[in-house]
């Protein structure tokens, strides 16, 4: 069976809405998105919601929200696999009519009995149905499933763009069930029918589906459909070399949004997690779309490294447009249950971003650095800042205040005002900046005092200094 050739690229992501969107699913979606977008193709979303007992509307919405946060736009509407059940059943019956499938009347008890006996004899438990070649005239009037007639001899070769050619002996392939006795289709059938009907040319998915590819190829063969190009990518491991799970910390996409990672940084890091383009670590979406190819995907599992993620994210925050950062901070606060910023706080934060965004790796870090611009008077002080509440600090700020009152409130003028106090009192910059930091921000570790004064403005800066001096006087009686 030949691959789909000379047709526009169509990829898909097909998550199951049975829980939070896993970070591994997000990476698979990213790879599929990059491959399609870099070639002018289509990227589709299918919700594999056939497991009605475990699928939930909340999980479906979580998938949609995760895709939106990551910026992975898809073409058309999301497809519900469950709603296509009639089409799946139709294909199973087509295969039955064509002699590519058969009715199997074996009961679960009979199948389990066979397997128990096989295990006792230490033989293969692969079930071989006795109904495979029974004529229709000899069929009983009993419930049945429809099974595919898998090849029994030779081998099936999955030509994979990541794993290479992977051979499965056909005597190890079962006649898998296509349609259950209640008329509902199985996952294995639904996936193939949906991929074919949606025009998917490239199936990029986890390598835990590699064996499924060999089994699903029997359906493509039976229907005479062209095979998609397969690319089975390795799983993501934690730092300990084991499959990424809750024991390693966050694994759900929404958890990373709630921790305040920028979406662009997340895309960059996930792209590098199992794929490489030379030694490039930091790159934009445009570069990733241009560079991404299946040949660059590694066979070995990638290890998730939080420090690398944070470093990449810090570089992206530094180059993001201010309005993008403000929008993402809104999303972060909503996802983490934080308090939304008021209009005045947003205005002050926007003014502070140019001097802050080059030194934060996550949005919580950025907001902490911007705290001076977000709080209202009187500014509460942490323990280290409180140590500045002494008469010496008061004296420094008393000397500084008239210089600031007369300054033109530009960087050079403010720097000159501070310099004059340093010279008059024979102090180093740190001695003057210490009480000034505490007065302006209530913290001992802050952005530049000059930056803070420029962001806060003359009136607010002087008011905070006066508040600080009043606190010193009150403490000292």
Automatic annotation (TrEMBL):
Entry's Pfam families?
Answer: Anticodon_2, tRNA-synt_1c
| Catalysed conversion reaction | tRNA(Glu) + L-glutamate + ATP = L-glutamyl-tRNA(Glu) + AMP + diphosphate
Q: Where does ATP bind?
A: 246
Entry superkingdom: Bacteria
Localization, per the record, is:
Cytoplasm
- Self-association or partners: how does it assemble? Monomer.
- What is the protein name given in its UniProt record? Glutamate--tRNA ligase
What are the top taxonomic ranks of the organism?
Answer: Bacteria, Pseudomonadati, Pseudomonadota, Alphaproteobacteria, Rhodobacterales
